[in-house]
């Protein structure tokens, strides 16, 4: 599966799609990037007249790149390709630390390393870096993946 | 021997109980998802801990059949005997 095909298979759309590009994917991990466009709606409220990317959104970005893109790659050969099945994802746990703020217009890079993928549970350690290569946040994320037959 | 396995298993499971379930609730017939309120993601962690604690390897079908403490105990027993 190509990197673009992985992105195309993400179960997200605007305004909750936080993956622009994947730079590298293999069975042990993934690296991808996303630019936080200044027009994203949450900047209007977080914070009043002082837009900063919310930690939950940074976590979501880490999860979409680090967990879901990797999960699609790992499951890729099991029926997604022929379009017979679709993917259901449930975020099951997160333990994050936030070190630096991310402002509107910044591009971040997420690096994720697989800890394990067993019995449909994928657990990864993730790190997010800003354009200056500074560590923005890091943590451990896990999710459950389920392949669903179409029409069921 | 079986009793020993149960104690070890109970110890592992008690680490994953939600706050509203006490370890007293763990009985042989307890259902992980329905009675002990353990979610499927934590059940995976229980299985991984069981593999380490008993030095065994579980397969997908073992996971499918693991609904109660008794199921888990039986699977552990079978895996240990097959070693």
Automatic annotation (TrEMBL), chain A:
Taxonomy of origin reads: Bacteria, Pseudomonadati, Bacteroidota, Flavobacteriia, Flavobacteriales
Q: Name one Pfam family in it.
A: FabA
**Protein name per Swiss-Prot or TrEMBL:** Hydroxymyristoyl-ACP dehydratase
Query: Is Lyase among this UniProt entry's keywords?
Result: yes
Which of UniProt's keywords are assigned here? Lyase
Look up keyword Magnesium and say if it applies.
Answer: no
Q: Which InterPro entries match?
A: FabA_FabZ, HotDog_dom_sf
From TrEMBL, chain B:
The record's annotation in Gene3D superfamilies points to:
ACP-like
Q: Where is the Carrier domain?
A: 3-80
The record ties this protein, via InterPro entries, to: ACP-like_sf, PP-bd_ACP
Where along the sequence do coiled-coil regions lie? Answer: none
Q: State the superkingdom.
A: Bacteria
Protein name as it appears in the record? Acyl carrier protein
